[in-house]
Fold this protein.
Amino acid sequence: MRNPELQTVKQRYNIVGNCEGLNRALDVALQVAPTDLSVLIVGESGVGKEIIPRVIHDNSPRRREKYFAINCGSIPEGTIDSELFGHVKGSFTGAINDSAGYFGVANKGTLFLDEVGELPIATQARLLRVLENGEYIPVGATEVRKTDVRIVAATNVNIRQAISEGRFREDLYYRLNQVPIQMPPLRERGEDTVLLFRLFALQMAEKYRMDKVVLTDEAKQLLMRYKWPGNIRQLKNITEQISILSPERTITPKILSRFIPQDQETTQLATIRNNGDHSFENEREILYKILFELRSNVNDMRHEISTLKKQMEEKPGPQHAAESLPTTQLAPIQPLAPIRPEMEDAVAEEYIEPAVEPENLNVNDWSRQALEKALDRNGGNRKKAAQELGISDRTLYRRLKQYGLDK
């Protein structure tokens, strides 16, 4: 499209900037306006996506009909179907009258669905039907109604990533994306940042009758180097803050740096990667690994208990009791620390005159006694007791809890 036509559109809608990405978006909008094709506008939050559907509607054959802009993310999930498709009286609590909904009221006109990626899956199915044949059924109604509405949608999320995670219907995406329009982020618009700052500063000066703030050349460079995670919305807020709070009207880099956030991580939040690194598959994989590890631990414990039960069923004599125990149960019998004089009788009793005959002990008794003795020898130090027994800290804690020794 010729440059004079683009300048006319920019003046009409107060659009500031000359970057190639912005000019391309406006050019596509003007070319698609005379058609009824659905348009999907993609861009980060705060880049000014709401301008494009207004340009499309005002330059289309529907310009004399109604235009509605709807933020799909701000409508509760329980009422969004009623808001969009209407309802009949008595269909739910609070439905005291019939409602035509946006699709009924905007017949022959244009609907701008902002944040379309936030629509519930059930609502997406109903929207797909409207896009395909213009039919919909109000909430609580039984008859099908017809509508002729032009749909322009916008989103700041990665729709393809949402599709892979099951949060957005793939068929609806292709139906909405008949003509895609990409809005560039502010950090990619170069000198447009300075032009926008000048516009917002002028608006503040006229509104509050104050001197306009101006940037030095060095401050302009600082302004263009910042990443602007909030895009145009953030730039406008900062310009307004400077206009009100700064006593100096010539803004240097030192003054500007007091208003621009210095947190590098915050500025990095503006970047939206096309591939979308985040995925719920990563979280699922971590949970699967944890579950597999827990199952493995449980299976090992069951195998150990089963082995001990089989050995105890054989009822070995006292002289073979130590040999029949697993290796992990023999460790407590070998004293690793020096024997204190007051413990000599206790040690002799342990080896020569056991208080309970081995054949009368079950698996739990042997295990409990081994744990208690290991803890006694190590002064209650659980980590040392686990090392002595040849088991992990977690296994020790689990057995202490099982035998009521964890208090």
Notes: The longest strand covers residues 150-155. The mean pLDDT is 82. The CA atoms of residues 12 and 55 lie 10 Å apart. Strands lie at 39-42, 67-71, 110-114, 135-136, 145-146, 150-155, 179-182, 214-215, 250-251.
